[in-house]
Amino acid sequence: QNVFFNTLGNSNKIAVTVTNECGSNSTEKTFVINDAPIANAGPDTVICSDFAVKLGTALVAGNTYSWTPTTNLNVANIAMPTFNKTNTSSVNDTLRYVVEVRNSTCITRDTVKVVVKPAPIVPVISDVIICLGDKAMLSYGGSGAVEWFDAVTGGGSLSTANPYEVSPSSTTTYYAQASLNGCIQATRKAVKVTVN
Q1: CA dist., res. 177 & res. 40, Å (int)
Q2: Number of other CB atoms surrounding residue 69 within 10 Å
Q3: What value does the mean pLDDT take over residues 133-149?
Q4: What are the angstrom distances between the C-alpha of 163 and each of 141, 145, 155, 158?
Q5: Model pTM score
């Protein structure tokens, strides 16, 4: 027969007596129900390639933490490690991580799913040479959409056209930045239009 106790931290005593035709025998056992730690790996999440996210929840004093697998984590034995992964494929990469939480007597575990969306890829865009007054067509042949800028970082957005028609009065460098499924390419690609 099963006997259940749910009083944490208190001493509990159970006595068992077994009787048959040969007589009876009794035994007692005293035990303490310890509080198990709470394992919380955090909510399932979807991120872009090369973007960092923290897993887990805040540290509870007295607990120790261990994450598996350890790949793509900055530290595997803390409450909230940072996850970061590059996805160079053309499909989502789904990974699962388990956190094991221990206190002085008990162990609990929890799992989180991380989906890493692929990064947009911008192919090399060839530089162009034109004569003053002529036009050049800047064409992007990568995945997703493209936006053209006047600076390698920050700067102003010039166009989202593809191809993008330009007619600069002097040699100018343009910068293409791709986006795919809500993910933006980390580094813009430069294309120089030389005006002779």
Answers
A1: 37
A2: 11
A3: 90
A4: 9, 11, 20, 13
A5: 0.69
